[in-house]
Design a protein that fits this description.
Order of helices and strands: EHEHEEEHHHH
Keywords: Hydrolase, Magnesium, Manganese, Metal-binding, Nucleotide metabolism, Nucleotide-binding
Strand content: 15-25%
Number of helices: 6
Radius of gyration: 15 Å
EC number: 3.6.1.73
Number of domains: 1
Bound molecules: inosine 5'-triphosphate, magnesium ion
Protein name: inosine/xanthosine triphosphatase
Largest sheet: 5 strands, mixed
Shape: globular
CATH class: Alpha Beta
InterPro entries: ITPase-like_fam, NTPase/PRRC1, YjjX_NTPase
Strand order of the largest sheet: 2-1-3-4-5
Helix content: 40-55%
Catalytic activity: XTP + H2O = XDP + phosphate + H(+); ITP + H2O = IDP + phosphate + H(+)
Length: 167
C-alpha cells in the first residue's frame, strides 16, 4: 500500500514505517491548519485530521496519516497530548491518542507566555531538536518512553481499527 505521513519529523515518520513495515511509506510536509502549539485535545486532533486528509488526497495515496502534538489542561496542570488520524480512500476517519503526562510548572509557565514546547524543551534539556529525538515525553520519563515509541503506539491503534474494518 502507498501511505503518506504528513510530517518529516523523524519520530513520526519512523513510527509509521515501523508499524506499516511491509508498505510503501512516504513523508510529506503538509499544513496542520492549527496553531504551531495546539492547546487542547480538540485543536490537536483537528491538526492531525487536517494532516491526514491532505495526505489521503495525494496522488496514488491509499492511506493518509496525520500525527500532531500539543498540550491540554486538566485543572491547573498542562499535559502532553498527541493525536493520530488515519484516512482511507473511502474517506473513513480513524482516530487515536497517545499517552499523556503532566509537564513541570517551569514548562507550563513558558507555554502560557506563548512559547512553543519544542523551543522550551531544547532550552530545558540544553540540547537541539528534542522534538525530533526523545521528545518531552522522553525527557520527563527519564528515557523510558520516547516520542517515537509513543507515536508507534498511536499508529498501531490506528492500524488495528482500520484493519478490523477490512475483514
Ligand atoms: O514537523 P512537525 O510534524 O510539525 O513536528 P513537530 O515536532 O513540530 O511536532 P508538532 O507540530 O506535532 O508539535 C507541536 C508543537 O509541540 C512541540 N512538541 C510536541 N510534542 C513534543 C515533545 O514530545 N517534545 C518536544 N516538543 C514537542 C513541537 O516542537 C511543536 O512546537
Ligand atoms: Mg509542528
Amino acid at each position: 500500500m502507498k501511505i503518506y505521513i504528513g510530517s518529516t519529523n523523524p519520530t513520526k515518520v519512523e513510527a509509521v514505517k515501523r508499524v506499516f513495515s511491509n508498505d510503501d511509506v512516504s513523508s510529506v510536509e503538509v499544513e496542520s491548519k492549527v496553531a504551531a502549539q495546539p492547546f487542547s485535545d480538540e485543536e490537536t486532533l483537528e491538526g492531525a485530521v487536517n494532516r491526514a486528509r491532505e495526505c489521503a488526497i495525494m496522488k496514488k495515496s491509499e492511506l493518509g496519516i496525520g500525527l500532531e502534538g500539543g498540550v491540554m489542561e486538566i485543572d491547573d496542570d498542562l499535559f502532553l497530548c498527541n493525536w493520530g488520524v488515519l484516512v482511507d480512500q473511502k474517506e473513513n476517519v480513524y482516530r487515536a491518542s497517545g499517552a499523556r503526562i503532566p509537564l513541570p510548572d517551569e514548562i507550563k509557565e513558558g507555554l502560557k507566555t506563548g512559547r512553543e514546547l519544542g523551543e522550551l524543551m531544547d532550552a530545558y534539556a540544553s540540547s537541539a531538536n528534542v522534538s525530533k529525538h526523545e521528545g518531552a515525553i522522553g525527557i520527563f520519563t527519564n528515557g523510558v518512553i520516547k516520542r517515537e515509541e509513543m507515536f508507534t503506539h498511536v499508529v498501531k491503534l490506528l492500524k488495528g481499527q482500520w484493519e478490523r474494518d477490512q475483514q
